[in-house]
User: What shape does this take?
Amino acid sequence: RKGNVIITGASSGLGLATAKVLAETGKWHVTMACRDFLKAERAAKSAGMNKDSYDVMHLDLASLDSVRQFVDNFRNSGKPLDALVCNAAVYLPTAKEPTFTADGFELSVGVNHLGHYLLSRLMLEDLNKSDYPSRRLIIVGSITGNTNTVAGNVPPKADLGDLRGLAGGLTGLNTASMINGGDFDGAKAYKDSKVCNMLSMQEFHRRFHEETGITFASLYPGCIATTGLFREHIPLFRLLFPPFQKYITKGFVSEEEAGKRLAQVRQLPSPPPSSLSAAGADLYFSLSLLQVVGEPSLTKSGVYWSWNQNSASFENQLSEEASDPEKARRVWELSEKLVGLA
Ligand code: NDP
Assistant: This one.
């Protein structure tokens, strides 16, 4: 049978490109879990996705009720779950004031971490029931949360501190809206949320890999300066960031190179790169994610994957904070309370 994969935030960027390529392998049915149903349907159509290869289900990660509703709806569809890809994210680098989810959490951590945390915890049961040979839970991380890298050292740096803000619910009322209890900073909140993503994946691995055999992994796919993620940034940044990536950090991936790299994915029988023209960068991104979802050699659990200049995958090192087991345990326990599981 076909594998069933859920991809959150599949209405644009990496999520959409990955949904399309996975669907085109003929080996996967994709559930696009999106907050804007119409936008996702339109995106799938204009990407040329075959109607039978996907469906769109409503999921707003900024509401815990919506997450629970999504899980019920997916279960009612009767499909088994073989892979869950937590990809959606918001990035609000220019916000002066925090905004909040329906449950009152600061939006970046609320959506990127807490919404995905609840979703992953609930859907672990579904992954566990599946008879698919390699079941995977994948979270998209980021180099920016990793302070052992050049990119991770651009201020404001990720820092979860003693987690006092998270313990207080990130409400911005009596407690701070930032995890470490500090003043709101949108760029930092995003990086902190990505550290939480990477910590949760490791904690999932420690708690559940042996018992369930599920692969838990996070990845950093490379910097893609052209996706929607940067839509909230100031115009000057949007103008300068792609050339900066291209000439200074050399992290930018061209469309041509992306096509070449895509062609290297062995498990894709006939990827026609020409039909995948859209943004080359998205392709490269989706290539990374694809390998982590479908590549038979990448089944190792508890790993943070990256790719080198030659498109070879390797197990990357996380920063001290993003690999601290004690912090991972505390983030897990505090998050569990906030989403109503404990
Ligand atoms: P995009 O902005 O293109 O995609 C983000 C997706 O998340 C969109 O589909 C968006 O939906 C969705 N989303 C946002 N808020 C919610 C919500 N409340 N509920 C459900 N879905 C939501 O960005 P990218 O494709 O670049 O980002 C994908 C992932 O890659 C993210 O996890 C990001 O952190 C990561 N990443 C990106 C890098 C880059 O260089 N671009 C670098 C490293 C990591 P909608 O279409 O409705 O807005």
